[in-house]
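In these records, each integer encodes one residue's backbone shape. Here is one protein:

___
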Amino acid sequence: MNIHKNKLDGSKRVGSPVRDDRLSKALANASVLVVDDEPGMRNFLQKTLSGVCGRVDVTSSSEEATKALDQSRYDVIVLDNVMPKQTGVEWLTEQSEIGLFSDAILITAHADLDTAIAAMRAGASDFLLKPFRSNQLINAIAQSLTKTKLRRQNSVLRNEIESGRDLLRQRDALVGSSAMIEEVRATIRRAAVTDAQVVIHGEVGSGTQIAARMLHNRSNRADNPFVWLHCSTLDEASFKPRLYGTIDRTDEDAKDNPRTDSDGMLVSASGGTLYLEDIDTLSPPCQTLLTQLLTEERFRPVGAERSVPLDVRFVASSRTSLREAVASGRFREDLFYFLSVIEIDLPPLRERKDDILELADFFLDSLATRMNIEKPTMPTAVKRRLVSHSWPGNVVELRNAMERALIQGGFDDMAAEGGGRAPSETLAEVEKRHILEVLGSSGGNRAEAARRLGIARKTIDRKCQSWGL
């Protein structure tokens, strides 16, 4: 916790106004709740913040502040410590127990160690000592917004790492010049300017997550997080805390123990996009929870007594037809209509053969640069084999084939008589062959193989077990 103390001797001003353009934009979009019982201080805080922050609500008591939190979600709370009935620290402690989803800056005329410790335990992130100047307050709010953004980014990165995803693999654009992929890009552009929910249909490896990231990056939510959640790994017990987060409501005998609250993905993705991959695999109980969330547009973390407004755009992907899943009773009809305001169909690579060589060259260029190796020349025979192959693993299979060629130093195995891959191979055979090849090139290191493949380590363990390895 920082303690900002203003000099009283008329010396130079402490702190400096926020000049960073990104911070200024964050402040302009920020919502702030002011809680102070003194009219003069309330007016000062309101005038100071109204021209800088997007929304400023002012309350004169803890009771009014509690009602405001029950109705709205605020990025930052500016809270006076000395108030009638209960102190700011006492109010913060109370709010933390029922669900506090905002950073709090405590303002007080008396700074002592006990108050600072109590404020930190109650959930305050910063501390301003009266008298303070307006620029100190603005900078404190800016720092709070920055810390919140970093915390959410860290949460997103942890999720990516835990899922075994290689971020670099997911930043490639939808490459190709065919009419089919041009139409997909045009649909993404049209969808991006709205805030409608989107379902992307596509086979395994066809680039559904890349399309979802493109949609996010072109939307007005692009400055906020893109959070990814794979639906097939979740059951009802894990879905709710993972999505909603948890509040650790410690008992009276555990006041000295640190709280272990956990932000859920809805908090991490606040203002941004939550990508639900393979929504067609979501279990019926989880479908019910998601339908309830979209109906109420509010959520309550596990252990909390307060719900908060939902500020997330949902983009889902499905390997199978959701309409057929609804018809067969495997997917809720109301959830389908909630999610599929806009539908995007990603064509399989075998249906857009004109893009194969362009994609292959794109992958060779980008991978050779990342791996710092020379790009090999692709023989004509190899090009013919690439175009004639059915690519059951779609773009991911093509990308991995180019990576393998770079690692091996050329295309000799593809160009050789009988080389290449038989078009009659099933997807399961392609998957097994490729996982074993990557395992071999990784020296049997399953963690490294998972990193190269862009899948979770436990997925490789499960596959190897099923193959008797």
